[in-house]
Amino acid sequence: MHVCVFLGANPGKREEYSVAVAALGRALGQSGCTLVYGGGSAGLMGVLANNAHEAGAKVIGVITHELAPIERSGDGVGTVITVNTMHERQAKMHDLCDLYIACPGGIGTMAELTEVICWCKLDMHSKPIGLLNVCGYYDPLSTFLDHSVVEGFLPSKTHDLVVKHDDPETLLKHLLSLASAQEK
């Protein structure tokens, strides 16, 4: 399985973010998965890619020419695909993956996540989407989605499209089982 992970190019303020992302990286490798991610080597991106690579996962990064000097420091791991625009980056990552996981990150992570939720809502894909909810990071998003359903802007099934868990291994296993069921 190819797992696309959205996450920050910064480490965040809590050590728990790096710990959980490192565990996710190891779980990807131990599960025989390929990591598809934003191609950076800084912040949480670097933690994820390095831990996945060390655990035996194939690593594919997709980055824009513009972001490469900002989000890459030193030698990264795995294969890096460089594209021209953020739209190309998102489309390439989508084409390469079987499921999505969003870890803590900033507005770029949120843009990527909401785009794949929107695509799923519009029946443009049916790939499982998960949130690694470290320290309740995605609780405000869940509240927003609930509010959008109550206010009539989203059907309740849209909120149900997103699986949320605070344990990286449990989240990955659940999403892999959903993706495997879809293949049958």
Explained architecture:
The chain has one domain: Rossmann fold (3-Layer(aba) Sandwich). It has a seven-stranded parallel sheet with strand order 4-3-2-1-5-6-7, with helices on both faces. It has eight helices and seven strands, in the order E-H-E-H-E-H-E-H-E-H-E-H-H-E-H. The protein starts with a strand and ends with a helix. It has 184 residues and is of the alpha/beta class. The model has no long low-confidence stretch (mean pLDDT 92). Strand 1 (2-6), helix 1 and strand 2 form a beta-alpha-beta unit. The protein has helices at 15-30, 43-54, 68-71, 86-96, 107-121, 139-150, 156-160, 168-183; strands spanning 2-6, 34-37, 58-64, 79-83, 99-102, 129-132, 162-165. It is globular, with a radius of gyration of 15 Å. Helix content is 49%, strand content 18%.
Helices and strands in order, then pairings?
Elements: E1 2-6, H1 15-30, E2 34-37, H2 43-54, E3 58-64, H3 68-71, E4 79-83, H4 86-96, E5 99-102, H5 107-121, E6 129-132, H6 139-150, H7 156-160, E7 162-165, H8 168-183
Parallel strand pairs: 1-2, 1-5, 2-3, 3-4, 5-6, 6-7
Helix pairs in contact: 1-2
What keyword list fits this structure?
Rossmann fold; 184 residues
Quickly describe the structure.
This protein is α/β, with parallel strands linked by helices and 184 residues long. The protein has helices at residues 15-30, 43-54, 68-71, 86-96, 107-121, 139-150, 156-160, 168-183; strands at residues 2-6, 34-37, 58-64, 79-83, 99-102, 129-132, 162-165. The longest helix is centred in the first third of the chain and has 16 residues, at 15-30.
